[in-house]
Amino acid sequence: MTIIDLKPGQSGEILELELDRKMKNKLMEMGMTPGTSVKFVRTAPLGDPINIKVRGFNLGIRRAVAQNIILK
Amino acid sequence: MVTTYALTGNPNSGKTTIFNELTGSAQYVGNWSGVTVEKKEGNIKNTGVHIVDLPGIYSMSSSSIDEIIAMNYIVQDKPDGILNVVSASNLERNLYLTLQILEMNVPVVIILNMMDEVKRRNMDVDIKKLGDILGTKIISTGSNDRSELKKIKHIVDEDNKSTFERFSYFSKDITEAVDDISKAVSKSDLESGIDAKWLALKILEKDQEVLSALKDIDEGLLKKGEELKKELEAKYNEDITHLLAKQRYAFLSLTAKKVIKDTEGNLERETLTEKLDKYLTHRILSIPIFLGIMWLIYYITITGLGDMTIGFMEWLIGDFITGAAESGLAWIGASEMVESLVVDGIIGGVGAVLVFVPQIMILFFFISILEDSGYMARIAFMMDRVFKKFGLSGKSIIPMLVGSGCSVPGIMATRTLENERDRKLTIILTPFISCGAKMPVYLLFASAFFASSAHWVVFSLYVLGIGIAMASGMLLSKLRYKGEESGFLLELPPYRIPALKSVAIHMWDKGKDFLIRAGTVIFAASVILWFAQSFDFSFSHVADPSLSILALFGKAIAPVFIPLGFGDWITSVAFITGFAAKEIVISTLSVLHGVGEGALVTSLRGLYTPLSAYSFMVFILLASPCFAAISVMKKELNSWKETGFAVLYQTGTAYLMAMAVYQIGSLFF
């Protein structure tokens, strides 16, 4: 299961980020470490990117990235 | 003695507002050496305290130019201390950077900002406890109460060495590895002031950026670091950098729980921003809201207030200053030639650009409101899908929106793009978005040749410009600027009411930039143009401009434009003068045709057909922008080669498109 399998408003717990090192670095430094709760807030009007919420702040990421963030 | 403190903090932590609050108008903007990231400095009012504003960053690693700049500044320039702006409404993530700064073992004072946002949600932060945990002084502030900020003047003179126990949150094997390496770091490896333990951590992480900046690190030491790194990574089956991030955040989660007072469970509750976003980024509603806001801004800037300021500036420059200069020159008995140089050359050329300064300041007023309120991030969020298709990022829309007013600030606005590839592409594409100065040219030609459908003709040009920008994005991202996709990572910050002081400072900064350029580049170009149109090759003054250097030059290149539908020298010259400023095209045509702007329509009708007039407008739309825009492109691309490519690409596209319009059109009309 990944972030894009969540419905808007649902949350999940991060298990692993299956991304290249650079992207993984950036996301982890923003607090998306394994075990952190992440909420799928909503999709952008044109279907991509999506708005997620981690550690109390909102972040826009593309679907291509979101589908590589594995949840428990 | 001057005390220098560096200001750091996350993007959206309110760092810029704090900087403006501390320094007021006593600030100046430059560039960091070698890169085009803006460097702001200033003094705290009435003190000898100097503040350097470092770029807003999320972490102190070396994954972006901004982070490298911040880290290098702290390591190499060794400020007396760090002022770390931390947003209390987003404590965990903001403190990540704080931890990394504390790891560098430099004096730190925390400015805990946005306390009003926290209190509005019926929560609080235990400032004393946080200060005890981090071993630092904390100044708390919020947009409604800045009184505590005054304490900074005194605090920076005290000893702010942190009592924080660094690395205590890392697992034992990591701290042991750090100790191991730091013991082996010999004095000779340490440029004065660099902390041995921090350097050891960087060696363990194998941070190339840091290690290459500090040459002469012992090979054996690097090898030892590499071995320990491999050992730890094998043990945890994880990249060391990710391991460190994990352990830091584990500590921060705990810290946040200890210091955030949230008895009502409001932290999880929906914020006002989230309520607003339900509409502002709504699947359907968001698009008309966005278009409505844009329309309002352009309506006010271009037709409303903008028209008034242009009228005023035209009067000021055309009547008042010109009149004063003429009578002044007559009074001192200046020759006709000097008068022509001053009035036609300098005031005419520089003035044509100055006329637009108030309008540009109004546009920037709105743009900084869009930025500071947090809505700009939503625009980028909404438009990313479209821009991605054309090889760009949603953030590219910001420079293009600005560029519809003037390419110069548009190109400067590309600084918000962190991906170099996206940034270069956006710089090259922004001039395709028709700027305000081209509007008068369209209006003249459209009304002369397409009376009843003039508006549609002008509209079609704007659409063509956007279309060419998009198509070029697709083409150039496949051919020239391949590189990696940015991945688009964008924080959607809480909506905030912009601080008037910051908006005013931003507006004035941009206006000032423009004035400086008018006084330098445009001034020089105007003098050269005047000279070229007033003299022949034997440097004697000519009364008939068709005998001037400019005319000879125009005649020489005129044949090039025959396939586009016009091969007369005046049109060619107008293109050349268009390099100085696009609106000069009209004055060139009217001067060289020897008629006023009113009679110009009649002369133009004799020279062009509707088809060649359209071809002319297409060329003006797409061809290389004015000198000012080229010079700022050079500054931002930081390369003559890239700038040359951009100008050639733009002019080449203009030529091909205008030729296509004329040649294909000739088959039908």
UniProtKB/TrEMBL annotation, chain A:
Start and end residues of each Ferrous iron transporter FeoA-like domain: 1-72
One MF term in the entry's GO annotations: transition metal ion binding
Alphabetic keyword roster: Iron
SUPFAM superfamilies on file: C-terminal domain of transcriptional repressors
Protein source organism: Alkalibacter saccharofermentans DSM 14828
Pfam families to which the protein is assigned, alphabetical: FeoA
Coiled coil residues, start to end: none
Gene3D superfamilies to which the protein is assigned, alphabetical: 2.30.30.90
Protein name in the entry: Ferrous iron transport protein A
UniProt keyword annotation of Protein biosynthesis present: no
